Amino acid sequence: MAAMTPTARETAPKPGTDDADPTPQAAPTRSRTRRRPRVWRGVVLGLGGAYFLVPLIASFVFTVHTPGQGVSFEAYTALLAADGFTESLLLSLGLAAATIALALLLAVPALVAVRIGAPRLRPVVEVMCMLPLVVPPIALVTGISTVLRWGPDHLSRTPLYQTFLAVQNESFPFVLVLAYTVMALPFVYRSLDAGLRAFDVPTLVEAARNCGAGWPYVMFRVILPNLRSSLAGAAFLTLALVLGEFTIASLLGFRPFAVWIVSISGAHARMSVAVSLLSLVITWVLLLALSRAGTAPAGAPGAANPARRARSSRTPSRTSPKES
Length: 324
Hints:
By secondary structure, the protein is an all-alpha fold. The chain has 15 helices and two strands. The protein has helices spanning 8-11, 23-64, 74-77, 85-117, 122-134, 137-154, 160-166, 174-197, 201-210, 215-226, 228-244, 247-252, 257-264, 269-293, 306-314, and strands at 65-66, 70-71.
């Protein structure tokens, strides 16, 4: 039997024969196929980065380089002294903060109530929140201006007359907050709806209520912490919308930051481009701050590891002999 069994030396294939192991030959092919996706990924990312960075770099060069005079940062140093720069920027930031607060105040309780008590109304709420995407801004501002003209004429002898005048105050036009809230509803709804689908709202609410928690405690300590990223996303989109909106504010006769940039573009071309770049930087900084606020830090007391919590809940508590 030992003579009939082939040895390892006999069964090992020779280097020159066809029975050699093909694995070393297939290794270069596999490495090539692995390198190709990385190369294409780098090409796509490079083209996308060039698509965004090249116009910004060209705009910056236009603001600092004057033919025949060299490099000058006069367009940026003259911003703080420009007439209306600070007022329009603070007005836009105030409008953005008020719009974010009003949109979240309307959307969060409504969506939570629908999720808990009336799930069948969810399609109706979704259609109502998506309607601003169908209505163009020019049609919305036409209706708003018609109402603002009609109100003082027919309500001059009622207390609502002062209300129509107050919402059109140039120092803080609350009518723009109302218009921006309507325009931001689709984005706020999508962000909050995705967050509410990520966890079981009825179960958490029922568990908290069975433990004796009131509705304010349930809302602020149970639901809102789970919606942290969704709230930050909704505020992110609303801020970008308000800072870049031009049509409604211009047609209603107000002058926030976007309208001010267009108004100075004819007389100060370099300054208008510099302000546009500065507005992009301000927007990015604010959006990064909102995204940072939407993620709980790893070392926070409430940000415990879910796996550790699950393990601790599954581990039975050991009682000492004295306690038993």
